[in-house]
Amino acid sequence: MSNKFSWIILTSVLLVFSCDSNQIFDEYKSVPNQWNKDTLISFTMTPPDSTKLYNLFINIRNTNDYKFSNLFLIAEINFPNGKTVKDTLEYQMTKPNGALLGEGFTDIKENKLWYKERVQFDEAGAYTVTIQHVMRNNGEVNGVDNLEGITDVGFRIEPATN
Predict the structure, then answer these.
(1) What is the bridge-based pairing of β-strands 127-133 and 70-78?
(2) Domain ranges for the chain
(3) What is the pLDDT along the chain (162 residues), one digit of tens a residue?
(4) DSSP H helical segments within the chain, as ranges?
(5) Are 45 and 127 contacting, i.e. CB atoms less than 8 angstroms apart?
(6) Which Pfam families match (predicted)?
(7) How many alpha carbons lie under 13 Å from residue 20 in its C-beta half-sphere?
(8) What pLDDT is stored for residue 22 in this prediction?
(9) Helix or strand or coil: residue 47?
């Protein structure tokens, strides 16, 4: 498949998904070439309604260059009053046969990963979410310095449904 055709399909898919009325916040940051273990990807937002509940997602776009079956992340929410909540997360990224999970018609797959559900943003002000990978090879103590195959990291907020 030619690169030009792949980009046309990718652009079309992105346009369709960008018209999603269910989103409260949806932003992506590109990862140039490799995601360094010390690189924090940050998103700052001010939720619109402090009385409603929201579901939070981490979105990952990856290519066939991603060599692992799972993904370990540290995600941190910094609240306006200074409180911090930090989580270590693990997500399955492939099927048992090694095929990548996620949506997409090209070699780029998009994964919408649950982070937290039914969250209430009850403090006025800006919240910041930071995401960092903490991948390791099996049997090794030191982490993977530069993670290949991740092209974009996103954060999304949707209204929680009853």
Answers:
(1) antiparallel
(2) 22-159
(3) 456 655 565 555 555 555 555 778 999 999 988 999 999 999 999 988 889 999 999 999 999 999 999 999 999 999 999 999 999 999 999 999 988 899 988 889 999 999 999 999 999 999 999 999 999 988 888 888 999 999 999 999 999 987
(4) 3-18
(5) yes
(6) GldH_lipo
(7) 15
(8) 72
(9) coil
Question: Who contacts 15 (Cβ-Cβ below 8 Å, separation ≥6)?
Answer: none
How many Å apart are CA 37 and CA 92, to the nearest integer? Answer: 19
- What CATH number has the domain spanning 22-159? 2.60.120
| Cα distance between residue 117 and residue 114, in whole Å | 8
- Write the burial class of residue 89 (CB in 10 Å: 0-12 exposed, 13-18 middle, 19+ buried): middle
Looking only at the bridges linking them, the beta strands covering 84-92 and 70-78 are: antiparallel
For residue 29, what are its two tokens? 């940051």
The answer to whether 22 and 159 are in contact (CB under 8 A) is yes
